[in-house]
């Protein structure tokens, strides 16, 4: 019974499907991997540009997948891509987190303008920041339209799950990476989550998310998209589910134009971070690469040569868990890492 209460489900939903990681979080801080579940669909059929367009299809597929896999966790941390996410740096009094949220709520109702109404948001104080001459400290606001987030929450509840939080996918991925390895060099971290429809690009500095945006790119020379498969319950069947995201795409070769355009876009985003956001003193420390593409080693080599920074794409060694599940984790940690990081979100 205690084991069941300590189980959490990290769920990443993409335009092309979902992947879920069930973990047991023990009181001593250790994490045990329990189950891996994945399912794919054609882009736009269930989720389009980050928006849930077919809630009934998501509910049906998710409910069936979790049941077939024998997932016991009811508590869910959901990770969504960067579509619709807005970031703002505010300067507020050094207050506890809850009090900061109350202050921001008042600001949103009176003077703080966002490009949408009725936001859901969180606030994150910059670590180690000193107060300015007015006694204020920098705080990062992360906001999204409720109309974007609420349909996912409703769908999870319809599956008799208990959503505890909705996380930005980039934050979940960084949390997972830091679970296995600390930063090795000072500076900014560029995170790239690749899919068959493009890339989510995010920049962190000292754990604070400064930039996140969606870049629409076609990775393959010929237009090819994943084809949805029947729900696949457990290892080794889950391996086929993970491969389903890229099965059709593998019939085409990774486009050289895609590699060139991706590197160029990352250079532009990082220049924006350094010069527009006044972060010139921040070098590029490393690039974290994840996602559903099979060709991550090829992408990693191109990005490292072009941007002059180490690329990290295979982490996750030392994780304990079920013997039937661990081989799939070790084969494709980059595929599961964002969902794993969501499952680790603090209570």
UniProtKB/TrEMBL annotation:
InterPro entries (UniProt xref): ATPase_NBD (IPR043129), FtsA/MreB (IPR050696), PilM (IPR005883)
Protein name: Type IV pilus assembly protein PilM
Species of the source: Calditerricola satsumensis
């Amino acid at each position: 019974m205690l084991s069941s209460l300590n189980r959490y489900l990290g769920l990443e939903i993409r335009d092309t499907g979902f992947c879920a990681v069930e973990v047991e979080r023990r009181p001593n801080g250790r994490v045990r991997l329990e189950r891996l579940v994945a399912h794919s669909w054609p882009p736009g059929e269930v989720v389009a540009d980050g928006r849930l367009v077919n809630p009934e299809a998501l509910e049906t597929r998710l409910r069936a997948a979790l049941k077939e896999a024998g997932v016991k966790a009811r508590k869910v941390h959901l990770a969504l891509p960067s579509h619709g996410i807005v970031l703002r740096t505010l300067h507020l009094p050094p207050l506890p987190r809850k009090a900061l949220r109350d202050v921001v709520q008042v600001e949103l109702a009176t003077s703080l303008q966002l490009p949408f109404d009725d936001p859901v948001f969180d606030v994150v104080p910059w670590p180690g920041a000193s107060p300015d001459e007015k006694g204020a400290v920098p705080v990062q606001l992360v906001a999204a339209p409720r109309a974007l987030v609420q349909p996912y929450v409703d769908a999870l509840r319809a599956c008799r799950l208990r959503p505890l939080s909705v996380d930005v996918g980039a934050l979940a991925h960084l949390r997972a990476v830091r679970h296995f390895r600390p930063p090795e060099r000072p500076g900014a971290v560029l995170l790239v989550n690749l899919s068959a429809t493009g890339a989510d690009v995010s920049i962190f500095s000292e754990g604070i998310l400064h930039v996140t945006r969606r870049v629409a790119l076609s990775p393959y020379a010929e237009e090819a998209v994943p084809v949805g498969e029947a729900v696949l319950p457990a290892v080794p069947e889950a391996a086929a589910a993970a491969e389903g995201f890229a099965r059709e795409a593998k019939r085409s070769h990774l486009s050289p134009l895609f590699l060139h355009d991706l590197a160029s876009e990352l250079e532009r985003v990082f220049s924006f971070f350094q010069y527009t956001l006044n972060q010139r003193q921040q070098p590029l420390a490393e690039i974290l690469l994840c996602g559903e593409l099979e060709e991550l080693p090829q992408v990693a080599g191109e990005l490292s040569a072009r941007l002059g920074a180490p690329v990290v794409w295979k982490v996750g060694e030392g994780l304990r868990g079920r013997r039937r599940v661990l081989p799939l984790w070790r084969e494709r940690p980059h595929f599961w890492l964002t969902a794993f990081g969501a499952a680790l979100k603090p209570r």
